[in-house]
Amino acid sequence: MGSSFSFIAVVIAASGYSGHGPSPNLDVALGGIIAAGVLYGIIALIVMQSGVGWVERLMPPVVTGAVVAAIGLNLAPVAVKSVSGSHFDTWIGLLTVLIIGLIAVAAPGMWRRLPIIFGAIGGYLLYLLLANGFGLGKPIDFTILRRWPQHPG
User: Which of 18, 28, 89, 96 is the most buried (most CB within 10 A)?
Assistant: First the structure.
């Protein structure tokens, strides 16, 4: 759901997260997300009963497109920072975007509707193969899974 990205700033503000270590007050942010989910459910029930016409009048494509563009432009620096760690990271990021683009344009039927999910899976598997398998990048560390479901402390 595209609007889920709009929660990022609110979660950071509500939880007081500084970007390092565990996030304090995460329960407050998660409670807000649950409340928003309940509100989304109520809106969905209203739309199911009344139809989508009023939503399309309230939020025409020019409005929703501008909102999506604004969200994307605000998230762009995060994406650039994520793939700027090394040349390897940059190439994995570019190949992930290429996978997403190819699926969005060339995939048949239902596959074409899920390019981000398949791009994320493809990018992860590519990274796993090249970093963990061939040692070309910083390997993914699975040691925390050995402790699961134990909690630290």
Answer: 96
